[in-house]
Amino acid sequence: MPELDPSGTPVALGRLVLRTPGFSGSAEMAVPGVPGGRGSADLPSAALGAALDAHGVTEFQTAVLTGVREAAGGGGARGGRGADAPVELTAPAAGTGLAQVALVEDAWGTSTWHVPAAAAPGPAGRGGDTVVYQLPRRVLQTSTAGDSSTRGPLGFLGRTVLRILVFPLVDEAVGRVGEHFVERWEQRHRPYRLFLATAENLTLADPPEATAEQLAELLGAPALLLVHGTFSRARSAFAGLLDDSTGPSTFEQLSRRYEGRVLAFDHPTLHADPVANIEWLFDHLPRGTEAQVDVVSHSRGGLVTRCLAEGALGPADRTVSVRRAVLAATPNAGTHLASPTHLGDLVDAYTNLLSALPDIAVLDVFEMLVAVVKELAVGVAKALPGLMAMEPDSWMLRRLNAAVENAPTYFAVASDFEPVQPGLKAWAADALADRVFGGRSNDLVVPTAGTFSANGSSLFPIADPLQLPVTTGIGHSGYFYDADVREALLRWLP
Fold first, then answer.
1. How far apart are CA 484 and CA 419, in angstroms?
2. Got the DSSP string for 293-304?
3. Checking CA distances to 160, which of 148, 175, 451, 472 falls within 20 to 30 Å?
4. Could you give the CA distance from residue 28 to residue 244 in angstroms, rounded to a whole number?
């Protein structure tokens, strides 16, 4: 089993080459598909594995590093920048018609995606050209306090998995992976759908769309509308409402209150902005609709809700009046993670937040994330209108955060999420704390106060928001799994 060299001297591991300045330990190749065997390296979650399979992404090379310790003296003579020198992984190029990306899991279970920093000609073992990944030192650090004896949750002393994943450059369903790939994939796999939400329908991948006759009947009296957030679908975003482990689920109780008049609105969140989402909704309501709705929304879905509640977007022969709306983790003041320059950080944040949730609730989101990762891997990731709507100075937020005539009642839920997992905490501090959030409290995606504080809109600040403290451990994707949030929904909605 090869030993890592803290001087930074390259160490060959099969067809991979590692430079780990400042770190000692052992390395071995993992054998894919042999769970529990020597060097085995299971994915962070079954849902992520299913999403990778759906996208045709396969393992190419995987290394497992164990017993990793920080050596005295930093990076050593060959470490380049000493204590600041990155960990370097050189891998063989995937081959003609293929692209690759690295998924790194540190000793604490934190997962981060990495694209090659450079390509270099020349042999790599038996291969041809190589690609180089420069990884931050925190992926090998086992303690944020400098205690090299700290053990990770898996019982390994400094166990890190370096996984090279490959995928075809041509997707059978939507064509070449390149510019506009995410848009084409989302159009095909995340179509618009307005459907009757029942306990059964909210678990289906393809629930039946509501007919014009059903909509006319459902909207003849006050109804409840569910609006999901970025990367998601209704079945993913609101799965927590189906929890019946302690009695009737929150969804069941809400459905009774509205006498079954509950609708869910699936819509694309990346290539279409919230105004486009609402325009589609109105186009698919029956002529003559005069509806009153209450809304439960999550994240970007809150901006879609505000477009519905505050903007005169519908045709003259169709109106929807929003009475009350719950805005959970809505970026009403924006989030810098929506910027194209932080798209990789956004993907990392969701990957780690989702890994703690039930697989059935997050598969849809992982599939969308992998589509974005593929575009990042080929170096053509670009601004996406649906995400750009959440940038702090976007035209969307300038439009919304002004005086308005309509006056729905808003309720807000926000979280101050402080990771307790050392690896995730180190990543959040390194990637997000200063560069993205400027030290402000956040749920790893949205600034806490930005959900409810004054922002220029005459409807803000929102009074008496439910703020989840750090002790709850609720991040951006877990709101509806929290008992306090579910209780609040039952207080706020009639």
1. 20
2. EEEEEETTHHHH
3. 472
4. 45
| CB 338 within 8 Å of CB 331 | yes
Q: Which of 38-42, 162-166, 416-420 has the lowest average pLDDT?
A: 38-42
Closest CA to 262 of 280, 244, 249: 249
- Residue 229 is encoded by which pair of tokens? 């957030």
pLDDT tens digits, one per residue of 426-478:
889 888 887 899 989 999 999 999 999 999 999 999 999 999 998 889 999 99
The residue whose two tokens read 């609708």 is 263
| Token pair of 148 as six digits | 């090299």
Report the alpha-carbon distance of residue 312 to residue 325 in Å, rounded: 17
Angle, helix 359-377 to helix 343-354, in steps of 10 degrees: 160
Please, what is the Cα angle at 330 between 343 and 261, to 5 degrees? 120
Q: What does residue 294 show for φ and ψ, rounded to 5 degrees?
A: -105, 155
Per DSSP, the residues of 141-187 read: ---TTS-TT---TTS-SS-EEEEEEEEESEETTTEESSTTHHHHHHH
User: Could you read off the pLDDT of 96-128 as tens digits, one per residue?
Assistant: 999 999 999 998 889 999 999 866 554 433 345
Checking phi first, is residue 8 left (phi over 0); if not, alpha (psi -120 to 50) or beta?
A: left
User: Quick one: DSSP state of residue 447?
Assistant: B
- What does pTM read for this prediction? 0.92
Give the position of tokens 């459905």: 255
Cα–Cα dist 328/493, whole Å: 14
The stretch 287-297 carries a mean pLDDT of 96
What is the SS3 assignment for 385?
helix
Q: Looking at the chain, how many residues does it have?
A: 494
Give, for 365, the enclosing helix (H) or strand (E): helix 359-377
Nearest to 468 by CA among 411, 410, 417: 417
Pairwise CA distance, residues 109 & 365, whole Å: 19
| Phi, psi angles (nearest 5°) of residue 386 | -65, -30
* Residue 200: how many other CB atoms lie within 10 Å: 9
- For residue 278, which phi and psi values (nearest 5 degrees)? -70, -35
- Answer whether 64's CB lies under 8 Å from 159's CB: yes
